Amino acid sequence: MIQRIQTLYFLLTALSFGAVFFLPFAFSQTTTLPVFADQVFQVEEQPILLIQAIAGAVVAMAAILFFNNRPLQIRLGYLLILQAIALPIVAFVLLSGMTSTMGSSAVVQYKPGLFVPVAAVLFSILAIISIRKDEHLVKSMDRLR
Can you spell out the DSSP letters for the chain? Predict the structure, then answer.
């Protein structure tokens, strides 16, 4: 299981989803009560973002455990790509909705947490490519028998 490179890619995908818990999504100088009370917007402040981040990490770890079912691993890889794309989009929509209620004087600076899921997309794509190479190798070995 650990010898295959896609296991490492899925592990890096899970770590990317886990990194959003430690990196802020946005920062604002304006202190508003519902969102920017501490001037930082993090994934824990919105339940939908929290569920998406946890689900992404769990699916990535599940993909590692299904090492003997390559077609399922590929489908889980595509699901991870969709989750990693949806996470910053949902966060951006939530932030833009919240900043519109804050007024025009509020300036929001986007932080690295909003862009970390791009790494999860990259690692998921690399895992899918590795799985397909592995599948091609197995099929070529079956032809030789």
Answer: -TTSHHHHHHHHHHHHHHHTTTS-SEEESS--SSS-TTSEE-GGGSHHHHHHHHHHHHHHHHHHHTTT-HHHHHHHHHHHHHHHHHHHHHHHHHHHHHHHHH-TT--EEE-GGGTTHHHHHHHHHHHHHHHHHHHHHHHHHHHH-
